[in-house]
Amino acid sequence: MASPYSRQTVTRMAPIDRAYQLTSPSMALLSNKIARKCNKSIATRALSSSKSDPKQQQSNGTGGEEEMSQEIVLTPGEKVVAGTRLFFWAGAFAFASVCAYYIGKELLPTKMSPNTTFDRATSAIRQNEEVKRRFGEGFKTYGRDHGGHREGRRNFIEHTEYTAEDGTKRTRVRFNLEGQYGSAFVFAEVSNEMASGEFVYILVQDKRNGAVITVQDNRAALLARQLAGGNKEGQDVFANLLGGGKN
């Protein structure tokens, strides 16, 4: 036999079950909507973060460049050291260039070099009969005499390189001659417009009495050429006048 209390309980529970059955579909729809909204918000955040990454990378890159530029900036003391080093290396390069120029000039002489002028003038003097009679045939020539007996000190030839009034390049040398019967100074000069073996002049001056022996002297011919301006007849006329009327 059923109790009256059990009936009331059953009748009261029935509405609750019905309410739960009615509300459960709506809860499912609500949960689906919430899940969709969450997914959309997550996707939006992911896109925004991916768009902001290049900006962050660019900012990071500019930051690295700023750091590098800050590292390159030198202090005043470092600038002084760098300038001193640059000046030192520039001076060393200039000194090496000058040394290379003079070494090459000595090793590869031209017709205008002092040593070449010395050698050719010595050859011309050895063929001059008056010089051989005055100083002897076995004479020798050498450069600057320092009063010593070492031949190495006599290798330097005193010389002067200059530009003449006519615009030609000239090399003038002076060296010593010593023979059996005495010694002398030798003066010689060459021009860049003259052929090899030709001299502006070669003069031998005796050290004892100052007497001068003229081996070659073309100064009058060069002056006549300058005054005539390239005219052959004018050169001959001026050469005769400057040479005292000699043909």
Automatic annotation (TrEMBL):
One of its GO terms (biological process) is protein import into mitochondrial matrix. Pfam families: TIM21. The chain crosses the membrane at residues 86-104. Keywords: Membrane, Mitochondrion, Mitochondrion inner membrane, Protein transport, Transit peptide, Translocation, Transmembrane, Transmembrane helix, Transport. It is a single-pass membrane protein. Residues 45-70 are annotated as: Disordered. Its main location: mitochondrion. It comes from the Eukaryota. It is found in: Mitochondrion inner membrane; Mitochondrion membrane. Residues 48-59 have a biased composition (Low complexity). GO terms for cellular component: TIM23 mitochondrial import inner membrane translocase complex. Essential component of the TIM23 complex, a complex that mediates the translocation of transit peptide-containing proteins across the mitochondrial inner membrane. Belongs to the TIM21 family. Component of the TIM23 complex. This is Mitochondrial import inner membrane translocase subunit Tim21. The lineage of its organism: Eukaryota, Sar, Stramenopiles, Ochrophyta, Bacillariophyta.
